[in-house]
Amino acid sequence: MTRLRIRDAAPADCDLIAQWMIAMAWETEHKRLDPPTVHAGVAAGLGDPAKARYFVAMREADTAGRETIAVPAGTLMLTREWSDWRNGEWWWIQSVYVDPEHRRQGVYDALHSHVAALAQADPAVIGLRLYVERENIAAQNTYRSQGMDESGYRIYESGF
What we know:
Layout: E1 2-8, H1 14-29, H2 35-47, E2 53-62, E3 68-83, E4 88-98, H3 107-121, E5 125-130, H4 137-145
């Protein structure tokens, strides 16, 4: 029997999450990221809950000998944004990645459901947000299937 379990990421997950972030940037935006910078960024997020909170989806399967084997299948990062308009926090879903071997098997759904349940249980949280590349139609359809809608905002940035 196979099942998904969502757990908080640990420092030992840093290498894998960094690899997944590099793969995700290439797959979704054709951007090549600097591996040492990404690794340092993931390590900083894992080490400071004020920066980020990572989750890892584990696919667990029982072997014939009833031993359980757990394999990392995907990840999701949360960051927080304060809203003075609503006197609460938006939780931003970011850095989503599902290993290709585990796609279309409910991994993102499990990650999203886990985060949504945590958010709904916290009275300080007013909702979930995320951003997605305009051309990533598959991801947009996935997010709509989770009850998310376009917010009507455009994101602008200025890099330094």
